[in-house]
Inverse folding.
């Protein structure tokens, strides 16, 4: 499916929204429709299509005082869950549909000053929230959507830092596979909330810099990690291999984003480079080879980039520009560019 270039409708909040070096938090709510969440002046903002067809910004659940950290948001079977950090504490809200009203924020406590991540569970849309506190990984989860949360559980670890990231936003069982900074390197944590005997950390070496690193789960070859090394190069680490190989990327100070494509059986990687442009590279099947880096769109400077798997088997790359407008650039099922547009 090509991403058509739509008409541009400008709103004041869109034009003046703050730009974060962190990648956007985005969910796909329908064919060619998305919702983008971010923090601006302490308020959690939802950028979504209004009844007029234009994208507009609204404040989520009368929010104030939130930290300028990435918002964690997941879409289940039509239901949306969102978590964000204020004063180091985690606050949670949800809505019953993509167009529904947000419930009041619930204070879940914790000390997560470096940010959080969240996954949902396929069978009932319950969620699990993860963050790093005191160098260790913590978890708090639901049993059912709309239900209460378990107390914070310390999953262990040492010298952990930054924000953990999941290999999948939607899990079959309660738990997740997470990637997290460990000392100067990285570790993978496999979490089974209902079978803790199988929980384990797997060292993946380093060195890695930045607030986080990402992973893409290859069903045939295991989880592949992507990060930025101290020299500003994007590097990757295959399952069972402690050696990090450079992808010869343009220099960058930001972590990459990645997603595994089941059709092509390889991963797509995107970065915001030091020259201000967004670039992508594509894995050649399930091999260790990656294509040369190509520029995505012509927008220069702005936020880090992220990549989202679409319901039609394509991908979409999201980032914000210097004015805070949300850009989306599409890739079809074969990995070919299908154009860019602005969500306004």
């Amino acid at each position: 499916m090509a991403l058509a270039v739509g008409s541009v409708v400008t709103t004041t909040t869109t034009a003046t929204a703050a730009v974060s070096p962190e990648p956007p938090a985005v969910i796909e709510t329908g064919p060619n429709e998305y919702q983008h969440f971010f923090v601006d002046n302490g308020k959690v903002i939802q950028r979504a299509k209004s009844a007029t067809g234009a994208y507009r910004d609204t404040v989520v659940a009368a929010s104030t005082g939130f930290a300028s950290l990435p918002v964690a948001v997941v879409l289940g079977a039509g239901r949306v869950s969102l978590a964000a950090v204020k004063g180091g504490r985690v606050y949670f809200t949800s809505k019953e549909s993509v167009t529904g009203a947000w419930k009041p924020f619930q204070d879940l406590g914790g000390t997560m000053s470096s940010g959080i991540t969240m996954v949902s569970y396929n069978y009932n849309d319950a969620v699990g929230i993860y963050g790093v506190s005191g160098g260790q990984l913590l978890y708090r989860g639901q049993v059912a959507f709309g239900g209460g949360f378990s107390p914070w559980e310390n999953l262990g670890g040492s010298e952990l830092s930054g924000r953990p990231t999941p290999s999948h936003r939607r899990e079959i069982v309660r738990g997740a596979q997470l990637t997290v900074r460990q000392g100067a390197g990285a570790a993978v944590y496999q979490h089974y909330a209902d079978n803790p005997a199988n929980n384990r950390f797997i060292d993946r070496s380093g060195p890695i810099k930045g607030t986080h690193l990402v992973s893409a789960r290859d069903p045939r070859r295991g989880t592949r990690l992507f990060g930025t090394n101290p020299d500003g190069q994007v590097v990757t680490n295959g399952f069972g291999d402690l050696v990090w190989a450079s992808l010869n990327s343009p220099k960058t100070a930001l972590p990459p984003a990645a997603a595994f494509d089941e059709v092509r059986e390889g991963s797509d990687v995107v970065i915001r480079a030091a020259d201000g442009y967004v670039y992508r590279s594509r894995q050649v099947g399930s091999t260790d080879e990656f294509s040369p880096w190509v520029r995505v769109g012509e927008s220069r400077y702005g936020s880090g980039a992220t990549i989202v798997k679409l319901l039609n088997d394509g991908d979409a790359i999201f980032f914000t520009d210097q004015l805070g407008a949300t850009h989306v650039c599409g890739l079809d099922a074969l990995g070919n560019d299908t154009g860019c547009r602005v969500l306004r």
